[in-house]
Fold this protein.
Amino acid sequence: MSHAPKDAAARRAVPPVICYPTETLPQPDLALYAAVRDDATKQAELLVKPRDAACFRVGAGQFFRITSVEGPQVGDLNLWHAADMSERFYSGKTRALHGTHVTTGDRLWSSFPAMRPLATIVADTLDWYGIDAFGGSVHDVIGTRCDPYTGNLLAGSQYHHCCHSNLTRALADDLGIALHQAERHVHDVLNVFMCTGFTRDTGQYFMKKSPVRPGDYLEFFAEVDLLGALSACPGGDCSAEHSSDAAACFPLLVEVFAPRPGLLADWTPPTLNGYDGSHGR
């Protein structure tokens, strides 16, 4: 390690500046969403099996809810625009705009060049958790998803039921395409119910036992037509490891709700990002 300069303390003491101030960020109409949600009716549901994944579809203006059932379980969520899968959830930009963990009122933003909200979080039964003494919080957009490639790199393993593989199989089955074609679409996730953070001393990504209990849920308003895929992580509540056949794992419930016709008559899905795309040319 290099020697610290004489003014090291002064350099460290420089106050931080928020990279993306959000005062001008368009805000969701949560009051409208709440009013519309009151008498919405269930349109569909599916149960995602432990150590597996499943796909679902949600129309623009509908709601979808992910619920822990039977036991504490975290899930890895991918989202795409249903009509154009090149527009997909962009965890990095969502993190830059809303922080490392998301909750009610935060939005899941899409990839360039569309860069618009795909979904808005309208309810979170774990919003009470906040940030704990370790720096941990719930629903992170910092973890990429457990995958077989990192497992092979670090442990020489060939594990096939991590979230990356689960999402790949589910998408291949749903679209009727080959695994290698589906894998190209799988992307960094929203870690639903997962409790994570970075260690203070080494800056390493950590996980800890999720506070989720059966009945807890995270609910979204679909801003555009969505194709979703959810994996019930093989780590269960992620209290010990995240790619394991030994951890206690439970299903996750996905439900889709549609508002009463006419209640969103004055609402329109968000438009594509207004940047002209010239890139200085």
